[in-house]
Recover the amino acids of this structure.
């Protein structure tokens, strides 16, 4: 039986070759749901994320955040004995996850066909920026590269100027979650039929999938609608977007049936039936005017919270644009565990995003920690590969196994 | 079981109360992987998104994109006979998905506790903007509301200016995918233990999980780092961002081990070991200078494609910032099915929509799914699942309990 903790996926064992962000967030989601995840790290320094956000004791918070609950198995991947040990592990796992550049996992001797020879019903999940197939597949990729190719970057900013980058790992993290979904779905198929498979999940496809209207709006309008960035407001309903308040910014969504409530809130009931403003298409025609009416009205409040409290009394969907620092203190975020404080033996306490899925059967997060480099070498060799403590010591001395307090 | 549909989730039955985008995405992901999804639509109008976006033959293309492969069961939810049919259906499904405002399901008599009485191992997945719990839970929510509360909006734009919103439904769509993951993980647990549960998935939590460095930076830097928007470039690596080129824009990721390649591409090998530029930290200190150097060099190319092609020869991670229009014909996106062309039976002609983002080697072809017209499957659902006769269905139709319309 896998050694996962009691949770929805505690019967699952995963061999994890991933580094950086997209892959590790996939396997972290699985670990947070109880799967046993064995993370293979290449010696001598382990995965590259161990070099990011090293604020305390040279311990990477970046690594901790994305690697909670995983076992670290650190080996010299250039040594054939290390590769042989990995091959021994394959038959004992359900799933292999990797996010190398396409082709690399096969070069290492662990392509899907080879893995299938080692374990017939193995599920291999390959995560990449631009996919395992197609003319761009071989190109080096990162989150924002895939975002640019997906057309998403072109939808952020002012139409006449260069687009902006959202400074959040939304492509990587979400792709990790998409991959976890593909894995759990493929496991259901395996359990029913005995067949494994190879999964191909790319940031490009995930980002592209975010276009809720843009792609069909272009083709559905026969090219009349050419979707592009349009500043701070939505293009198919109005008003909806970012508004300037006093000392800060608000998001207000008062299109469709909310318009009436907004008009009440701003003391302009006349605008409800005014044909210039009564429908979303009419308001879109005069968007600058609508925005000005709202922003002028917002200036009559001393600050953002008082404007929000007033709008909320009228049921207008509204939110303050919180800074990240503010989110870490917000009572709602704390109450839900949207933000959580984790403890690390080396780095101490710090805040990170909470597990985004809430299960009524498991109301508490599992008490997971991130491993130091090679922390579980001995456990993995003795428990899964039947080696003695002496064998382990020998492999350590010969540099096949690597362990470091980082 | 739906005939002819073979995929990962064949045999799984889902009762879907969702509307708009986040919930429908969750149920659609399940349908695209073979689940039998019965979408309950409230008579007389059905899902509000049937009135949204671009239309062809009065058919909402938005609805088509987000409701492929579902069965439409359109019923008057204010009629006790309608609610009785729903209660019967709950006993015949594995999963219920909803994205009403928290509390609405309970008001409808479909709280988790009640569903459990109807089917002890039911899995209920509740999707919302701000969650089922916490002081903000009862507030009306949309994608950008959750994004603002998550601190994500504050990370987009120029430091001293109002932030921008990305004009894509990324919070809704991604939350739908998160919901689908929670559902399948909970099903695995149900199959092992016989126990169902209630899942609570919110856009706020999903958006918040996107912060790969911002949240941990706040406390760990002792308040020294105050994460905020800073324009077009990354804050912890350099160069990494959007650059102005001739006639367009490119994304270049030239940090870490890519810096030497990038210097060679720019024919500036001297910068590789120059202490002012050698490390990411040094380059971050002089980011404006680095950006200017790169943008000046980009101007020496006649256009974006030639600059991209040159950098690619040096293995620099680079991409053109494509417009949505350009993505539709881009060979890679077509070849992978990142964009797909679908045909809707009720309107003439084809439309392009994003492809299914998960690729399964066992199922290289996408399932041949279409979006239903309003109440299209009323009769099928009642005869196949609830054992009603065609005559009984007709009676319910005439009594206004069932509703059907070709749109």
């Amino acid at each position: 039986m896998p050694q996962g903790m009691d949770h929805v996926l505690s019967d699952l064992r995963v061999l994890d070759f991933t580094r950086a962000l997209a892959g590790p967030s996939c396997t972290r989601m699985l670990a947070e749901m109880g799967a046993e995840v064995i993370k293979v790290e290449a010696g001598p320094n382990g995965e590259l994320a161990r070099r990011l956000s090293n604020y305390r004791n040279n311990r990477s918070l970046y690594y901790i955040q994305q690697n909670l609950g995983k076992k670290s198995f650190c080996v010299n991947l250039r040594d054939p004995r290390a590769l042989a040990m990995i091959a021994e592990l394959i038959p004992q796992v359900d799933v292999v996850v990797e996010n190398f550049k396409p082709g690399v996992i096969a070069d290492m001797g662990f392509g899907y066909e080879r893995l299938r020879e080692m374990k017939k019903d193995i599920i291999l999940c390959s995560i990449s920026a631009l996919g395992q197939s197609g003319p761009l597949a071989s190109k080096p990729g990162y989150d924002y590269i895939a975002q640019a190719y997906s057309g998403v970057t072109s939808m952020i900013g002012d139409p006449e100027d260069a687009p902006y980058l959202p400074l959040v790992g939304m492509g990587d993290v979400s792709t990790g979650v998409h991959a976890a979904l593909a894995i759990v779905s493929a496991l259901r198929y395996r359990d029913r039929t005995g067949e494994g498979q190879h999964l191909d999940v790319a940031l490009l496809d995930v980002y592209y999938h975010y276009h809720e209207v843009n792609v069909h709006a272009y083709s559905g309008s026969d090219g009349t609608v050419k979707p592009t960035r349009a500043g701070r407001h939505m293009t198919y309903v109005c008003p909806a977007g970012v508004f300037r308040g006093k000392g800060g910014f608000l998001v207000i969504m008062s299109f469709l049936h909310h318009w009436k409530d907004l008009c009440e809130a701003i003391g302009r009931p006349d605008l409800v039936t005014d044909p210039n403003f009564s429908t979303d298409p009419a308001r879109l025609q005069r968007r600058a005017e609508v925005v000005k009416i709202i922003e002028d009205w917002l200036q009559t409040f001393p600050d953002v919270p008082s404007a929000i409290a007033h709008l909320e009394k009228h049921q207008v969907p509204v939110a303050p644009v919180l800074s990240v620092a503010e989110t870490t203190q917000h009572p709602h975020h704390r109450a839900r565990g949207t933000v959580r404080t984790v403890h690390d033996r080396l780095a101490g306490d710090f805040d990170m995003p909470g597990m985004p899925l809430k299960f009524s059967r498991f109301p508490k997060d599992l008490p997971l920690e991130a491993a130091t480099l090679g922390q579980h070498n001995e456990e993995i060799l003795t428990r899964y590969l039947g080696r003695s403590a002496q064998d382990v010591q020998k492999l350590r001395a010969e540099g096949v196994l690597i362990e470091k307090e980082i | 079981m739906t005939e002819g549909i073979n995929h990962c989730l064949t045999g799984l039955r889902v009762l879907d109360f969702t509307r708009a985008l986040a919930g429908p995405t969750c149920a659609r992901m399940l349908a695209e992987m073979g689940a039998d999804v019965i979408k309950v639509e409230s008579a007389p109008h059905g899902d509000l998104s049937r009135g949204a976006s671009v239309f062809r033959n009065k058919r909402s293309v938005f609805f088509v994109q987000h409701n492929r492969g579902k069965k439409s069961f359109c019923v008057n939810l204010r009629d006790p006979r309608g609610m009785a049919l729903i209660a019967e259906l709950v006993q015949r499904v594995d999963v219920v998905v909803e994205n009403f405002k928290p509390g609405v399901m309970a008001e409808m008599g479909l709280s988790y506790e009640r569903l459990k009485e109807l089917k002890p191992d039911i899995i209920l997945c509740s999707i919302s903007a701000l969650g089922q719990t916490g002081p903000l839970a009862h507030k009306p929510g949309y994608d950008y509301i959750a994004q603002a509360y998550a601190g994500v909006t504050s990370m987009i734009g120029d430091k001293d200016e109002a932030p921008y919103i990305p004009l894509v439904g990324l919070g809704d769509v991604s939350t739908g995918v998160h919901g689908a993951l929670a559902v399948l993980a909970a099903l695995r647990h149900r199959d092992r233990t016989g126990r169902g549960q209630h899942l609570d998935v919110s856009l706020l939590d999903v958006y918040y999980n996107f912060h790969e460095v911002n949240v941990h930076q706040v406390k760990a830097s002792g308040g020294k780092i105050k994460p905020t928007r800073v324009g077009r470039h990354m804050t912890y690596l350099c160069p990494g961002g959007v650059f102005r080129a001739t006639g367009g824009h490119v994304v270049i990721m030239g940090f870490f081990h890519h810096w030497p390649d990038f210097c060679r591409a720019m024919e500036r090998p001297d910068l590789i070991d120059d202490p002012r530029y050698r490390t990411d930290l040094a380059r971050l200190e002089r980011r404006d200078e680095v950006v200017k150097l790169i943008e000046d060099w980009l101007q020496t190319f006649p256009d974006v494609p030639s600059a991209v092609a040159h950098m690619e020869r040096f293995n620099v991670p680079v991409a053109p910032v494509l417009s949505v229009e350009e993505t539709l014909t881009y060979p890679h996106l077509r070849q992978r099915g990142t964009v797909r062309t679908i045909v809707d039976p009720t309107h003439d002609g084809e439309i392009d929509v994003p492809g299914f983002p998960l690729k399964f080697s066992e199922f290289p072809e996408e399932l041949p799914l279409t979006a239903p017209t309003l109440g299209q499957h009323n009769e099928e659902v009642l005869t196949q699942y609830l054992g009603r006769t065609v005559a009984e269905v007709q009676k319910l139709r005439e009594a206004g309990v069932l509703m059907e319309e070709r749109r």
